[in-house]
Design goal:
Order of helices and strands: HEEEEEEEEE
Radius of gyration: 23 Å
Largest sheet: 5 strands, mixed
Helix content: 10-25%
Low-confidence stretches: none
Strand content: 35-45%
Strand order of the largest sheet: 3-9-8-5-6
Shape: elongated
Mean pLDDT: 85
Structural class: alpha+beta
Distance between the termini: 59 Å
Number of helices: 1
Number of strands: 9
């Protein structure tokens, strides 16, 4: 028969090992991680704006899960179907559209659960709806690391 004290110590060690293993396992699953929230204002002056920045720029990790919140405000002109701005990400090296990052925005708040591009490099978000004479300046520089 085993000593009760030795049994208790053995049980405690196993319990601690299980808790530590479960913690490491849970931390390794991206599904448990909360996506980073990115808030963008597609403003009425035909500029993308990010709080605290004078020129809109983003840095994301390759493959990172993000929750993109866009507050779209009516520009100086309306597209006939109510779309006020576009939001499309292009890879800079070949100007190819990034799958899943192409939206037409009506006025109001929009949320998108997205995955950052898997390939590190320089990207650009631009407005694809002619919203005013200043439309060409509606861009966000994106760096994927």
């Amino acid at each position: 028969m085993k000593n009760p004290r030795q049994s208790a110590i053995l049980f405690s060690r196993r319990a601690v090992a299980c808790v530590v293993a479960a913690w490491f396992l849970a931390a390794s699953f991206p599904a448990f991680a909360q996506p980073r929230v990115i808030e963008v204002l597609a403003d009425k002056d035909s500029h993308f704006k990010i709080a605290g920045q004078t020129k809109a720029q983003l840095t994301v990790k390759a493959g990172e899960q993000v929750l993109l919140r866009i507050d779209a405000r009516k520009g100086k002109t309306w597209n006939r179907d109510g779309v006020v701005h576009g939001f499309t990400m292009l890879r800079m090296k070949d100007r190819a559209r990034v799958p899943g990052w192409d939206f037409e925005l009506t006025a109001g708040m929009h949320e998108y659960s997205l995955t950052a591009p898997p390939e590190p490099g320089e990207y650009e978000v631009l407005c694809t709806v002619i919203c005013s004479g200043d439309h060409e300046g509606m861009r966000i520089k994106v760096l994927v690391v």
